[in-house]
Amino acid sequence: MTSHLATRLREGTQRSHTATENTAFMKCFLKGIVEVVPFKKLLANLYLVYSTLEAELKDHSEHPIVGKIYFPEINRQSSLEQDLAFYYGDDWRSQIVPLKAGQVYVDRLLEISNTDPVLLIAHSYTRYMGDLSGGQALKHIIRSALDLPCDRGTTFYEFDQIPTIEAKKEFKEKYRHALDSLILDEATILRIVEEANYAFTLNRNVVDELEADVRAVVDPHVFALLTKQDRVGSTTHHHHGQAVPA
Ligand code: HEM
Fold first, then answer.
1. Is the pTM above the cut of 0.90?
2. For 184-208, b where at least 16 C-beta lie within 10 A, e where not — what string?
3. Which of 56, 153, 187, 193 is deepest in the core (most CB within 10 A)?
4. What is the pLDDT of residues 78-136, one digit of tens each?
């Protein structure tokens, strides 16, 4: 018995994934333009998102469906706390403020947790599978762009309990298997895929709100050059590229 939810999610969010990779913020990021002000604001908003998501998933850990995708070993809240202390200092808690889009994202998580908790699966998928995939390439870009002291500043991208590429691959297989083994009707599958697309939109809105901070420090001509061309998308199957998912 399989719901094929893993494949439904991958295929059902391909276009959203490509659109996210093609935001100006991400295009600059991938080309090594990582500015500390927008980057630390991104981490602050991810902190608010993950602390909400992880508290709500924990609350539903005994739920017959949601509980099956509760894997506290991938939780990001404490790694984000370490990074925020590094970028903002010890009083980071008093300094971080949600962006408008960050608040909308947090509010959505709280709303579905109360009204329709199976939709939390969509949010777990969208963030954690991304962190375990493309996030690993981003880590190296950030480290060299910001010239970070060793072991500081990219804890968010490090999984102590899943340290190697091999272990990450294995974990992703376990996670996909857990998605596939959920007993769900077609209407619920469609709602979860739709919510995952909305999760991509929420993420896109956060980085779009940070675009002004990037523009403020990047030469307009360079910015135009870096954001001109669209990427095919890392989760899109195509014939010649190297970016076909493993
Ligand atoms: C622009 C930077 C990004 C790059 C270069 C990138 C790259 C990739 C790659 C190469 C994969 C395939 C890995 C695999 O199948 O094992 C992947 C998967 C994934 N990414 Fe991204 N990604 C980026 C941003 C994001 C963002 C911002 C999100 C969500 C907020 C995200 C969510 C996902 C998800 C959910 C998957 C899993 C797809 C599946 O079901 O197999 N990615 N990404």
1. yes
2. beeebbebbbebbbbbbbbbbbbbe
3. 153
4. 999 999 999 999 999 999 999 999 999 999 999 999 999 999 999 999 999 999 998 88
Q: Does domain 5-236 have CATH number 1.20.210.10?
A: no
Q: What is the CA(154)–ligand 1 centre distance, in A?
A: 18
Nearest residue (by CA) to ligand 1, atom 41, is 10
pLDDT digits (tens, 9 = 90+) for 24-75: 999 999 999 999 999 999 999 999 999 999 999 999 999 999 999 999 999 9
What distances in angstroms separate CA 200 from CA 13, 72, 148, 196, 203, one per listed residue?
8, 22, 29, 6, 5
Residue having the nearest C-alpha atom to atom 34 of ligand 1: 130
